[in-house]
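> call design_seq(struct)
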């Protein structure tokens, strides 16, 4: 699992200060681990993510064109219902 960086501020002055602090060693450039991942195996988290990235494509490949069309029409109908 890769370490995540600190969130970068949008303000250029604050960003400059953060970069200076990181370069001088006053701040670590790694954010705190996600509390919901506490106690989980990092390898299992990565495997789950890999499976999640494959899932939608695999499902679309297993559907027939008619099934995909029906699902797309139903989704479009729902989107248009929300706008009313």
């Amino acid at each position: 699992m890769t370490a995540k960086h600190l969130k970068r501020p949008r303000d250029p002055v604050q960003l400059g200060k953060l970069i200076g602090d990181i370069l001088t060693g006053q701040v670590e450039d790694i954010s705190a681990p996600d509390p919901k991942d506490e106690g989980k195996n990092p390898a299992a988290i990565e495997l789950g993510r890999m499976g999640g990235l494959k899932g939608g494509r695999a499902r679309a490949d297993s559907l027939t064109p008619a099934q995909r069309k029906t699902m797309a029409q139903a989704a479009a109908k729902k989107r248009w219902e929300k706008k009313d």
